[in-house]
Structures are given as C-alpha cells and as structure tokens.
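Final report, closing paragraph on structural work. Over the funding period we assembled a curated collection of sequence-structure pairs, and we close with a single example.
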Amino acid sequence: MSLLTDALREAVAPLGLSLTEKQYAAFDTYYEMLVDWNSRMNLTAITDPVEVAQKHFADSLLPLAYGMLPERARCIDVGTGAGFPGVPLLIARPDLSMVLLDSLAKRLKFLDAVLSALSLKARTVHARAEEGGRLSGLRAGFDAVLSRAVAPAPVLLELTIPFARVGGASICFKGPALSEELDSAKRALTLLSARVDRVETLLLPWGERRIARIEKTAKTPPAYPRKPGAPSKQPL
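Its predicted structure, as stored:
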C-alpha cells in the first residue's frame, strides 16, 4: 500500500467518505502522473504524497461531504489547472458529467492523459472563463460550477455564475476569509442574480476549509461575463 493511499484513507475519514480499493488505486496513478508531468511543466507546487492527499485530493471531495452534487449532476470545473477539484470528484463519483475548462492547453494535454489512464469520461475545453461563459452549450448548462483557488469572490462569481442553470450553483472552495469575501461580493450577487444558499466550515488537520454553494436565481444578464480581464481589473 502506498504512502499516498494511506494518507488519503486518513484524510477522507473526517469527511465521512469511503472509497473503494479501485478508487484508491486511481488516485495513486493520478498522483504518479502528476509528479511525473510536474517535472516537465508547472502543474503544482505541492508534490509530497501526504500533502497531495490532503490539500489536493481530499479538499477536492468537500462537496460530497455535504451532499452538494446530486446524482448525475452536470458539472464544470472552471480554471481546473491540474484537475482539481474535477478529476478527484470524477474518481469518487463517476456518475457525474464533467467538463474541465482551462486557459492553458498544456494542462489539458496532461488531463487528457490522466482521463485516458484512469478510463474516466470528461470533456476538456481550452478557453478562459470569460470566453467559456458565453459559449453555446456551456452558458447556463450546468447544475454545479466548481472553482478552487481561482479568484476572490466578487471576481469568481462573475466567472462562474454564467455557467450555471437557473437553480444550479457555483460551488466555491475557500479558506477562513470566505465571510469577508462574501461581504464584498454583495453587489456581484445582486447583478448576477445569485444568492448565498449555504456555507459549510470544516476544521481539518491541515487547515480550516470553507465551501459555499451560491445559487443562481434567475437568468444571467447578457452583459456578463465581461470581456477577458475585466472581472479581475474591475470587480463587480
């Protein structure tokens, strides 16, 4: 049994989750590929197996601990990077329909290799969030819009809410500063027709984690998202 598997078993226990041996083996393969490809391209600063198990894999599974992803939910991971949280969620919940969106093609090449090695089905899309949020088939097409370590809440909401269907949600992975971020995002919530549905806090051995479900309450106005770069330069 690998160090990664041992660490992941321990890390998912506080989340009330259990994985099969096949799923642990998939995470092990994912880790090996992550470290291998990371030696040739910048995917992650975290490569220690225990830290990867905790801060990449277990953290990615947080929505499952709170029942935030319904059976066969249509999901998109915006700014997926090395595949977090989309690929870990797909390993744990292969019933999910997953789109992995990123602005760097080389990251998507890595993810295509991972998906092939693990026999997982997902669509990879090369686009910035501002562009993807306007594409037919992506705009208003998802039950859950996932984002991790992408941007502060006022920016993040403009980048994610357009992807959600009405009644769907942006699932934001954050740390202790989430409350302050949401306070600063009140105007963005109003303009984007969204509301804070729930916020969950989990104190884990490797840090405090907060996850928010921001529900889309009405159709996104045509003005959003604005052109690439505008949301971060001039947050709502």
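The two ends are 49 Å apart (CA to CA). The mean pLDDT is 95. We thank the funder for supporting this effort.
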